[in-house]
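Q: Joint fold for the lines below.
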Amino acid sequence: MNSLSDFMLVSAMLFGIGIYGLVTKRNALRLLFAVEIMINAANLNFVAFGQYLPFEGGSQTVLPNAFGQTFVLFSIALAAAEAAVILAIVVVAYRLHKDVDVSELKSLEG
Amino acid sequence: MVLTVGSAIIALEAKEIVYGAIGLAGSLFGVAALFFLLDAPYVAVFQIAVYIGAVAVLILFTVMLVREEKWAKEAPANSLTKIGGALTGLAITVVLAGAAVFTNLGQYTTITNSATFVDIGQLISTGDAPVLLVLALVLAASVVGALTLSRADKEGPAR
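A: Joint structure:
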């Protein structure tokens, strides 16, 4: 567990699990779980690449690479906002339909 | 690693959706542990605070708000859909893992010159300051939107 490939493997597995959930599940909350898992896979990749690959822009000196971690901080905040909106939609859909099965939510169709 | 992947599977496959939410929290915690392993403690603590402290609790609240007994025995997905979904997920995993294993990314085995939280703070407050402002606006807008969504229904004509 100490090379870039190992972390990429974990990330790939998480992403595959997320895709599987996104394809097979119809409960809106499960879909949210799947999306969160995929976002975490992406975040893991960002931090892994940022930590293992040095930043060599312009000067010859190797600088600490903070870009991966910074991007992940923004990404986590965005994911939290997204989860809040989705959960509000789920609550409204449950009030209207007494169900959160996405294939039943015909009224959301355009 | 086993915790992360195993909990992710539990999150999607647990019969009772409350256990699924707890599995998701476990998976998020596993990712935070991986961040610690990657020598990124700031991001790891941020992940624990935001995801496990806020998002997981929010999800648990919503699950308990809208849960119904019938979900425990919800109609299982079409087996064709299930096999197709499993194959799709497996194919994507294999391709991404192949990209990780069969390229020369394996040569990166040590964390070089890891960034401290001072570097992160400098980057956020100087170069990425506009992003931070836009992100604050997006967060505020999403919270207002979520509140409006869950409130407008109460005053709406038809329920």
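Q: Anything notable?
A: Helices of chain A lie at 4-24, 28-52, 67-97. The mean pLDDT of chain A is 81.
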